[in-house]
Automatic annotation (TrEMBL):
Gene3D superfamilies: NAD(P)-binding Rossmann-like Domain
This protein's name: Ketoreductase (KR) domain-containing protein
Pfam families attached to this UniProt entry: adh_short
Keyword Oxidoreductase (UniProt): yes
Keywords in alphabetical order: Oxidoreductase
Coiled-coil region: none
Annotated InterPro entries: NAD(P)-bd_dom_sf, SDR_fam
Upper lineage: Eukaryota, Fungi, Fungi incertae sedis, Chytridiomycota, Chytridiomycota incertae sedis
One term of GO molecular function: oxidoreductase activity
């Protein structure tokens, strides 16, 4: 089935089921929980009796507003919801957040890496790294790997979950920067491509798929289930930075066939309760689906290895010894 046909079929004819998983006693962290899909996923998980919910956000006041909203709409105790600060675009912030979680929680049953940005202009973080790559890729996997030891020890009765919110747009690119000797370095150079539709966003979503697959190969699914998912095209704040034709196309599609934020968020909650069959897999419409053809092609397999090697070198520089966290 072509990517486009699959996309249209899914948007027009598939409605992900309302989540029913019981999160009683579970500590769940959602990164990017103040608006959009993360907020609605948090609301579902609160309704499904989460033991403790951590709203990981970059602005305290936005997190507190989200907390009040979730408490009022679900009846969850305010004591069972915490707001903690993390900015995925900053390695320092991610490391500080992980220290906070280790200090405050003896166990974490689910970590949802949901926050991403859709960059349309070239901008860099405090370390001079392009913001899309810094946030969607480096910060996301820095946090995943920092949290692995805590996740592993939390799996006493059943495996815990580490889920990454990817996207079907990973299939809309084959990562043009793969022609360069160093992919991450090539991505740090401004180019006219940057403002072409959502090229950078698509590239970072493809990188998430490759790196999550590689990470899953090194993680025991009896302890930590690593999966990544596609929520479908949904109403949210994500495309508010978009400009020109890219913006027009996406907004028109959203108007006609976009899922509501709540409906899209069901796929996030599903990933956090999916079984071992989802380990290392791409979930779309709450089912394991093959990723884009490029991902499993001979060339894709090589690109995946290169990305893993480059990323782990970067992370080892950011946090020497971090790779020991991967069993
Ligand atoms: N909406 C769709 O159609 C769609 C489709 C496929 C995949 N996705 C994926 O779904 C996920 C959620 O997106 P969404 O549509 O809900 O977008 P959204 O409405 O823009 O929400 C994104 C969330 O991420 C947070 N965030 C952004 N940058 C951050 C950073 N540096 N550190 C920490 N948090 C940060 C935002 O916080 P602030 O409020 O502070 O900005 C917000 O809470 C993303 O991974 C996106 O790629 C969305």
């Amino acid at each position: 089935m072509s990517v486009l046909f699959k996309f249209l079929y899914s948007q027009l004819f598939v409605t992900p089921p309302v989540p029913q998983h019981d999160f009683s006693g579970e500590t769940v962290i959602i990164v990017g929980a103040n608006i959009g899909l993360g907020l609605e996923a948090a609301r579902h998980i609160a309704r499904l009796k989460a033991g403790h919910l951590v709203l990981a956000v970059r602005t305290q006041s936005k997190g507190e507003t989200a907390k009040r909203d979730i408490v009022a709409s679900t009846g969850i105790s305010p004591d069972a919801v915490s707001v903690r600060i993390v900015d995925l675009s900053s390695n320092k912030s991610v490391i500080a957040f992980s220290h906070t979680i280790y200090a405050e929680f003896k166990k974490v049953d689910a970590l949802l890496l949901n926050a991403s940005i859709l960059p349309f202009t070239f901008a860099t973080n405090e370390d001079g790294v392009e913001l899309g790559v810094a946030t969607n890729v480096i910060g996301t996997f820095l946090l995943a790997i920092l949290m692995l030891p805590l996740l592993r020890v939390s799996a006493t009765i059943k495996p815990v979950h580490l889920s990454i919110v990817a996207s079907e747009v990973h299939a809309f690119t084959t990562l043009p920067e793969k022609k360069h000797a160093h992919i991450f370095n090539a991505l740090n150079v401004n180019s006219p491509d940057f403002e072409r539709l959502q090229e950078r966003y698509n590239v970072t979503k493809l990188m998430q798929v490759f790196i999550a697959r590689e990470l899953a190969q090194r993680v025991d699914c009896d302890r930590v289930i690593v999966n990544f998912l596609n929520p479908g095209l949904c109403h949210s704040n994500l495309t508010s930075t978009a400009k020109g034709w890219g913006s027009f196309v996406v907004e028109t599609l959203k108007y006609w066939i976009g899922r509501t934020t709540e409906v899209g968020s069901r796929t996030l909650v599903h990933a956090l309760s999916a079984g071992k069959e989802s380990h290392g897999q791409y979930l779309s419409d709450c089912k394991v689906e093959p990723p884009a053809v490029f991902v499993t092609s001979d060339e894709g397999v090589k690109v995946q290895k290169r990305l893993w090697e480059e990323l782990t070198e970067i992370l080892e520089n950011v946090r020497p010894g971090i790779l020991k966290n991967i069993a």
